[in-house]
Amino acid sequence: MDFSEAAERISRKFSQKGTEVDPKKIEGKLRRLVTEFGVQPSEAERSVTNELAKEFNLPAMGSGGSGKSSGAADLKKIAEIAPGDWVTIEGKIVALSAPASASISQSGIIADESGGIRFVVWAKSNAPAMAVGSWYRIESAVAEEYKGVVNLKIHSGTTIKGIEEDLALMPTTMPINELHPGIGGVRAKVVQEWDSSHERMLQSGLLGDETGTIKFVIWKEPGKTQLEPGQIYNIFYAMVDEYNGKLSLSLNTAMIMQEEGDIAVSGGSVSVRGAIVHIAPGSGIIKRCPVEGCNRALSRQNYCPVHEIQPKFIYDLRIKGWLDDGEKTHNILLQRDVVESLTGITLDAAKEIAENNPLGMDEVFLRMRDAVLGRYITCSGREIDNRLLANSCERISYDSGEHTALLNRAGGAL
Description:
Layout: H1 3-16, H2 23-36, H3 41-55, E1 86-97, E2 104-112, E3 115-122, E4 135-146, E5 149-154, E6 159-163, E7 182-194, E8 201-209, E9 212-219, E10 232-243, E11 246-250, E12 255-259, E13 269-279, E14 284-288, E15 303-304, E16 308-309, E17 314-324, E18 329-334, H4 336-343, H5 347-356, H6 361-372, E19 376-384, E20 387-395, H7 400-413
Parallel strand pairs: 3-5, 9-11, 18-20
Antiparallel strand pairs: 1-2, 1-4, 2-3, 4-5, 4-6, 7-8, 7-10, 8-9, 10-11, 10-12, 13-17, 13-19, 14-17, 15-16, 17-18, 19-20
């Protein structure tokens, strides 16, 4: 795009209406829309023209370019928006989230009866602030695709008007196996709660319904609370993200309502047979935060990343390690009941060792390592993000025939 030529063309239009506009000012606006916000040149020219027309109280004059706006004047349903569209919508702000950078003044989710969409308001747009629960008409916003998700960009050429709307939105849920990147809702059960892997993470774990399971995460923000394991929730307007072909739910923008009842979660279980080749640090007897709803593993100094020092900790058992099936190494996590069954060491026995042996908790780790390292076992459970969350493990008895067959194959290969 020749910004100088386009600016002169727009300037001449206003001169014909008796209004002088500095071409340099026009050129700066065009460059910002095209280079910073990725707006198509024809749409940028139209947007700047209409913006200046409003500034000088003149009728809209169009762009004068070769392109044509894809429906900026026509109201569009959110579910119909596609990447590259230049749209006008009416919707309700159902969530606001903390801006990711100083260049963004607001971000969140806007919804109508057809669905929801993420939006970003650029700080340079000088757009009026929008409030959760209020309805707005947004004109001349551009839809873009980022990581497979359509987002609405609000820039300097966008108009935002508050509207009186009393329409009750009825968000819906869908089966987990039908979710796709964007905004979605589910009715699901909290199946697993995992140790936080990041200091900014409030909670992560696994949600499940009759069709499958999906990872969820809640980041630390004022007013955010954890979900209770085993409970059922209706979750609306969650962000559905995709990474390495796997979906996950970010619940910071979501509307969450706990309900009664139960869900028969689809097993989605796998069974893996192999040898335990590594026991990772953090295995053995551990201490957990006693604060209701937390249950995070504590450091050696009894420190919880959320609730700080916790002298009245709760003991627990777990094993983290690797299980090699001969073709693939599986990251495994075994909880207390599986650990007790596999090692023969109960929680009470582990506490006795930890509190009275000179090596303390390290002695428990060493005894459990000796009990399982190199042993062949079969573990069943769910495999999520390359980690097997085992709900049962059994030792494999020695089979001389299988051993002989293995040696024969090895000899044949040599």
